[in-house]
Amino acid sequence: MVKLIGVNKINTSVFISGRGTNLKNLIEFSKKNSSPIKINMVISNNKKAYGIRYAKKNKIKFKIINFSKKSEINNLLKILNYNNIKLICLAGFLKILSKDFIKSFKGKIINIHPSLLPRYKGLNTHERVLENNEKFTGCSVHFVNEKLDGGKIILQKKIKIFKNDNIKSLKIRVLKEEYKLYPKSIKKIFTNY
Ligand code: GRF
Questions:
Q1: How far lies 76's CA from each of 27, 62, 135, 152, 182, in Å?
Q2: Entry pTM
Q3: Tens of pLDDT along 123-163?
Q4: How much is the pLDDT for 193?
Q5: Is 1 a residue whose pLDDT tops 50?
Q6: What is the domain partition of the chain in residue ranges?
Q7: Which of 22, 129, 142 to mutate for ligand 1's pocket (most ligand atoms within 8 Å of CB)?
Q8: 10-189: which CATH topology?
Q9: How far apart are CA 141 and CA 19, in angstroms?
């Protein structure tokens, strides 16, 4: 496996909207020698996002962006380019990025989704999976294109649904897998891990 020291690591920005536990997990991952990324910047569309505290705690720059304002998005693009950001990880980011934004970072934006894509795109995946009496669920990391949760899949993890599972238990069990799958997917992209 390729060892990357700090300076060689890929400059990364994580976009969040809320709780930010995947951000927390990616920050921990980024500190490892074996991680191909370093996290330079956290972007939130929500100034009350709980996850911002993980950026503060780790002294990572963060910015609150109003994604409804074109001027703020243009400014964000400049900031990302100025900071030489080569990877954007969406982690519980609830805004849909514009086509232009995606074009500017073509092939460099990835997302984690709590279902076995292409099934159950969009929100409330666990509710819908349980309603349909599915036997399996899981999580997927994929490239972001202009179609919602529709880009090329990088990695997926499948888990079994138990008879006594409910929304809460599924959320917990899938999240646990997300924390392994997101770093593994990043390694896959950059180091053919
Ligand atoms: C995760 O389940 C992720 O798959 C989905 O949103 C949730 C974010 O959780 N896209 P957190 O904010 O990382 O805790």
A1: 21, 11, 42, 25, 24
A2: 0.95
A3: 999 999 999 999 999 999 999 999 999 999 999 999 999 99
A4: 45
A5: no
A6: 10-189
A7: 22
A8: Rossmann fold (3.40.50)
A9: 18
